[in-house]
Each structure stands twice: as C-alpha cells, then as structure tokens.
C-alpha cells in the first residue's frame, strides 16, 4: 500500500454483511463509496460526527519504491481497490461475532504489515481529523519494520524506504519533529518516530517477523552471524526507552507476520499466548482501558503456542 496522504482513504470501504458462511469467517461484499473518493479524509470526519463508528484498516502489501514498480502494480489489487476481490472473508479482528472477536470496538485505526506501518505513521494525522471528543486509538500488526542491515552488512531497507519516501513525497505526512532531527527517510521507521506519537497505540509483532527476516535480513542465513538478534534487541530496546508512549505491545517469539486478521492467531483455543493471554484479550483490555498489556516473549523457540509460518 502506498503509505501517504490520500491513497489509503480511497480504499475505505463500508461493509455490508452478506452471509455467514463458515464458523471462522464470513464473507463481505465490497462497496465503493464514491463520495469518499471525492472528499477524501473529510468523509471520515463527517461520518464520525454523524455518530458512525467504524474501524479503518489499511491493507498490507508492501511498497513501491520507484515509478517503474508503482506502474507495475497499478492494475493489481495493490494499486487500485477496483482490482480487489469482490468478496472478502472477515475473521479474527474483523469478525462480527463476539465469540470470535469479543473485545474490539470499531473506532480504531488499524492495519497489518505495510498497513500496520501506515497506522503508526498516520496515527496522529488521523486523530487530528476527528473531533477531540472522539476516542481514537491505533493498532499496528506486524508494522514495526526495523532498520537493520542485511546479513552481508548492506543497508538495503534504509535505501528502499528512502526511495519510497522520495517517490511518494511522504515527508509532509511524517512527524515534523522527527524529520527535523533525522530527515524523512529514517522517520519511516517506527523505532525512530514512535516516540513522537501522541495518540494511544498498540503494537503487535512477532519478534521473529517472517517478512522481516526474509526481506530485511535475508532468507535462510538469518541467524548465522547473530544478525537477527539485533532485530529482537531493537524491539526490546525500544520498549523501555523510546516506546514509552506505546500503551501496549504484544511481541511474541513466533515466526509469523500479521496475527490479527486470522482467527487461529487472534482468538481460538489454540491461539498464541503471551502471559497466558491471547492477542484478542490483550487488545481488548487495552482498548477498553481495563488493563495495560506490555509483554515481550522469552527467546525463540521457548513459546510453544506459536503458529509458526512455514514457507515452501
Ligand atoms: C526500481 O526499484 C527496484 C527495486 O529496488 C530496482 O531494482 C530498479 O532498478 C529500480 N528502477 C529504477 C528505474 O530506478
Ligand atoms: C492460563 O489460563 C487458563 C484459562 O484461563 C487457566 O486455566 C490456567 O490455569 C492459566 N495458566 C497459568 C499458568 O496462569
């Protein structure tokens, strides 16, 4: 997803409940809101003031870093919501049944992967669009992309993000305080900018994020030089010092990427646990201010509740 101003707003869909097909998800038809396209963020603000509550979710799907790559995805679901599936299965955090999703109020900005990063980067911007009396919280699932070198010591992700920011002119939506200090490219990394966020935010991330291991550190050789330890150290370090604005975090020692939109990792009998707590419960307790949840798992492979991803 293009992580800048207007793009994500165009993807906003209000959903109509079509049918209950399976126990672990239900299918929802795609509805385009033409007036939202014309009005952009104004539309959301208007709906909130009319008393609507809804969750805004940024889809993941990575970034395009230059015109060539952006053009290549133009006619795919990553470039246009017109190309998205006409029917999506909603489960996990998107389920409409309390049994599967007991805890989460819809008034929240959320997202997974590139969308999880967007919900961090846009959290305060989103807050500022809404009336001060509206309760706004942000949730990032697998969006804590770290600035780590590859296993051969190159700065791949740093250069890639710098290109993304340049290509999309993202500097103007990034935290001005961060940009003044580090420049726009580095402020695309949550570890550098999350301390400037004022809106309550909750972070869910696998310490052994499978996308990051494969794409930031490099496949296969992840642990030979202890490089990936840096990843864990990074998140741990952030938790005490930089991330004190974070109201909650659920960093489990699993090899996965995106755990909220899938029933098996969000809330099920065999879902991942941290401190004996499911992700759904931790998020719900945070959202309703019953309990702060800030936990980081013991080192891999201590956690037997993981649903580790297996790739071909
Ligand atoms: C666009 O980015 C890709 C991936 O980083 C790179 O391989 C390619 O050479 C770039 N193309 C241009 C025209 O800069
Ligand atoms: C974890 O939670 C379950 C169900 O709530 C409970 O039965 C069990 O005793 C708890 N285990 C620990 C170690 O707290």
Q: Please summarize the sheet with the most strands.
A: 6 strands, parallel
**CA radius of gyration:** 19 Å
- Mean pLDDT across all amino acids: 79
The dominant shape is: globular
Provide the fold topology.
Elements lengths: L5 H5 L5 E7 L2 E5 L4 H6 L1 H9 L6 E3 L8 H6 L14 E4 L17 E5 L1 H8 L1 H7 L7 E5 L14 H13 L7 H7 L7 H4 L7 E6 L3 H8 L9 H14 L7 E5 L10 H4 L12 H9 L6 E3 L16
The structure holds 2-acetamido-2-deoxy-beta-D-glucopyranose (NAG) (2 copies).
The site of one 2-acetamido-2-deoxy-beta-D-glucopyranose (NAG) has 4 residues, from α4.
Question: How would you explain this protein's 3D organization?
Answer:
The protein is α/β, with parallel strands linked by helices and 312 residues long. The chain has one domain. It has 13 helices and 9 strands. The protein has helices at residues 6-10, 34-39, 41-49, 67-72, 114-121, 123-129, 156-168, 176-182, 190-193, 210-217, 227-240, 263-266, 279-287; strands spanning 16-22, 25-29, 56-58, 87-90, 108-112, 137-141, 201-206, 248-252, 294-296. A hairpin with a 2-residue loop joins strand 1 and strand 2. The longest helix is centred in the C-terminal third of the chain and has 14 residues, at 227-240. It is globular. The relative contact order is 0.13. The structure holds 2-acetamido-2-deoxy-beta-D-glucopyranose (NAG) (2 copies). One 2-acetamido-2-deoxy-beta-D-glucopyranose is lined by residues 65-66, 68-69. Its EC number is 3.1.1.-. Pfam families: PAE. Belongs to the pectinacetylesterase family.
């Amino acid at each position: 997803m293009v992580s800048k101003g207007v793009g994500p707003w165009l993807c906003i869909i209000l959903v109509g409940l079509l049918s209950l097909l399976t126990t672990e998800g239900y299918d929802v038809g795609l509805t385009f809101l033409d007036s939202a396209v014309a009005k952009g963020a104004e539309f959301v603000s208007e709906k909130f003031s009319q008393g609507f509550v809804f969750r805004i979710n940024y889809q993941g799907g990575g970034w395009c870093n230059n015109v060539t790559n952006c053009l290549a995805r133009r006619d795919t679901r990553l470039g246009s919501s017109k190309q998205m599936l006409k029917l999506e299965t909603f489960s996990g955090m998107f389920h409409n049944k309390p049994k599967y999703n007991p805890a989460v109020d819809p008034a929240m900005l959320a997202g997974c992967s590139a969308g999880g990063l967007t919900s961090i980067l846009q959290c305060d911007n989103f807050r500022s669009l809404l009336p001060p009396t509206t309760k706004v919280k942000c949730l990032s699932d697998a969006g804590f992309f770290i600035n780590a070198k590859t296993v051969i010591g190159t700065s791949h992700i740093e250069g890639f993000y710098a290109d993304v920011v340049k290509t999309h002119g993202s500097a103007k939506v990034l935290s001005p305080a961060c940009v003044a200090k580090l420049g726009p490219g580095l402020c695309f990394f949550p570890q550098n900018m999350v301390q400037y966020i004022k809106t309550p935010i909750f972070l869910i991330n696998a310490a052994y994020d499978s996308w990051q291991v494969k794409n930031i550190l490099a496949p296969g050789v992840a642990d030979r030089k202890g490089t990936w330890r840096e990843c864990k150290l990074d998140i741990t370090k952030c938790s005490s010092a930089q991330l004190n604005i974070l109201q909650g975090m659920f960093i489990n020692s699993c090899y996965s990427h995106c755990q909220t939109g899938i029933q098996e990792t969000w809330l099920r009998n065999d879902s991942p646990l941290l401190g004996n707590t499911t992700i759904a419960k931790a998020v719900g307790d945070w959202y309703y201010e019953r309990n702060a949840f800030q936990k980081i798992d013991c080192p891999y492979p201590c956690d037997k509740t993981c649903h580790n991803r297996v790739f071909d």
